[in-house]
Design a protein that fits this description.
It contains seven helices and eight strands; from the N terminus they run βαβααβαβββααβαβ. With about 250 residues, the chain is α+β, with helices and mostly antiparallel strands. It folds into two domains: about 5-85, no CATH class; about 100-220, no CATH class. Strands 1-2 form a two-stranded parallel sheet. It has a two-stranded antiparallel sheet with strand order 3-8. α1 links the parallel β1 and β2 (about 40-45). α1 packs across α2. It is elongated and about 90 Å long.
Length: about 250
């Protein structure tokens, strides 16, 4: 359910505002919870005159009563909520953590450079398959069985770059952005399931394993990220405890 809706009066007439509120209150698959705090929907309505706000609330309350709805409407002015200035705690600085890879970029590139140019090895790029079948001769006094075999060459091929990229990104996408991958040799067409296809996947494993085993995390203390203070309710009687929260 939508628990908070901000409505700017400039969107149209009072009817338009009422319709938006109605859509929120009548959302499908809504259900009641044990805590009343979870059964509330809040609407922040900005209006130019107080009487306009009052008109919207009165019309909404009247409509709900006519429909026999159990929903209750309560209005609060923002000015009524402001009593004393809110005292917040201090801001906190959190160091930024980055991946340091400069010391292994040459090593990763050497692996990429060792990948062969499959333009020069067409015998590795074909994805072969064997089709076998048996023919039976009908109508003869003796059953005649003939076994046949045929070698097939599939034509569904993609560029070597695509195979290498997929194999790397499936494990760690950052590696693909480090190495030089737009060289001409990666334009070679490779058949799925071919010998070259398997070799490219092995090279992808080498690149990812080198990256994960030799990169390290770097803590940047010179330019930290600032976490601003927030209001925290200290009175446990006013707290709402929940389970299975998705952050």
């Amino acid at each position: 359910m939508v628990y908070l809706a901000y409505i700017d009066k400039t969107i149209g007439s009072e009817v338009a505002v009422e319709q938006i509120i109605g859509r929120v209150l009548r959302q499908p698959n809504c259900r009641y919870y044990g805590s009343e705090e979870l059964n509330k929907a809040y609407f922040h309505i900005r209006v130019d005159e107080d009487k306009v706000f009052r008109k919207i609330i009165d019309e909404l309350r009247s409509r709900l009563e006519e429909e026999g709805s159990p929903i209750k409407v309560r209005e609060e002015k923002l000015i009524d909520k402001i009593d004393t200035p809110l005292k917040l705690g201090k801001n906190r600085n959190v160091p930024i953590i980055t991946w340091e890879t400069k010391h292994i970029e040459d090593k990763l590139q050497n692996i990429v450079d060792s990948i062969p140019d499959y333009h020069n090895f067409p015998e590795k790029t074909s994805n072969k398959a064997i089709r076998e079948w048996t023919e039976y001769k009908l109508g003869d006094h003796e059953k005649l069985e003939i076994k046949r075999q045929e070698e097939l060459f599939y034509t569904n091929q993609v560029r070597a770059r695509v195979i290498l990229q997929r194999a790397i990104i499936d494990q760690n996408s950052k590696v693909w952005n480090i190495v030089e991958n737009w060289v001409e040799k990666f334009d070679a067409l490779i058949g799925w399931g071919s010998e070259a296809n398997d070799e490219l996947k092995d090279y992808a494993d080498q690149l990812v394993n080198t990256y994960l085993n030799e990169m390290f995390l770097k803590v940047n203390l010179d330019d930290p990220y600032m976490v601003k203070s927030i209001k925290v309710e200290k009175d446990e009687s006013k707290m709402l405890f929940m389970k299975n929260i998705v952050d």
